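Q: Hi! New to this. If I give you a protein sequence and the SMILES for NAP, can you show me the bound structure?
A: Yes, paste them in.
Q: Okay, here:
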Amino acid sequence: MDQLKHKKAIITGGSKGLGKATAIAFAKLGIDVAITGRNEARLNETVLELKTFGVNAFYEVFDVGNYDAVKKGIKNIISNLGTVDILVNNAGIAAFGTLNDMDATLWEDIIKTNVLGMYYVTKEVLPYMIDKNEGDIINVSSTAGLTGNASTSAYSASKFAVIGLSQSLMKEVRKNNIRVNTLTPSTIATDMALNLGITDGNTDTVLQPEDFAQFIVSGLQLPRRAMMANGSIWSTNP
Ligand SMILES: NC(=O)c1ccc[n+]([C@@H]2O[C@H](COP(=O)([O-])OP(=O)(O)OC[C@H]3O[C@@H](n4cnc5c(N)ncnc54)[C@H](OP(=O)(O)O)[C@@H]3O)[C@@H](O)[C@H]2O)c1
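A: Thanks. Here is the predicted structure of the protein with NAP bound:
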């Protein structure tokens, strides 16, 4: 199971929640990890934890919704890592409210972060993977990207868009030996889900961030001829 050792990964939104759990799972496998986010103190804390596993770990601070900042941040990351093998497009925000009630600025922010953010980061990373004719891109959508519900118009619109972006990209770059994995996880106990009040986070019944991380790793561990194109992870007995 050493095939991932010394690989280089970028995880957006790697300071907490699902991104942090994935960064820890990667570090345990000997993968060097660059994490990104907006809150520098939290990024720094996570990097210190990642370094205890003996890997190269560092952070870049940028808002994924700001294309100029993304360009600069990804350039810095690649010059530190030397190359990139794995991109986890995980950064995201969520808020619920009816279409009528939700403030237009918040609606736009959700689209900007979850959709344009993923597009900007991918656009900056992809040329490196095409050049080396190898790579893995994991795009985090949601079960909210498979069906709309009352009060989720912004979040569902963003996560539907992620699926469209991701599946199209997969068909564009399979020929370049780049595996694109579209994930549609159900509720997982992170700050996002707890703050939205959609779970109590019970460790016996509710998916935990480390389960999500293990799911990602299992896809990456497939032989390169095989690709987890889409993946849903649900709790067994909610
Ligand atoms: N938890 C769930 O139940 C669940 C289920 C399905 C899908 N998801 C998806 O999984 C992903 C991670 O969610 P989570 O539950 O781990 O949420 P979380 O605990 O709130 O973490 C979100 C991460 O994204 C970063 N982030 C947010 N906005 C950003 C921006 N504009 N620019 C850069 N970084 C940004 C945050 O860092 P900063 O605050 O420092 O920027 C943080 O590291 C999201 O895409 C979410 O939609 C979550």
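A: Helices lie at 17-28, 40-51, 67-81, 104-132, 153-173, 191-196, 209-220. Let me know if you'd like me to explain how to read the tokens.
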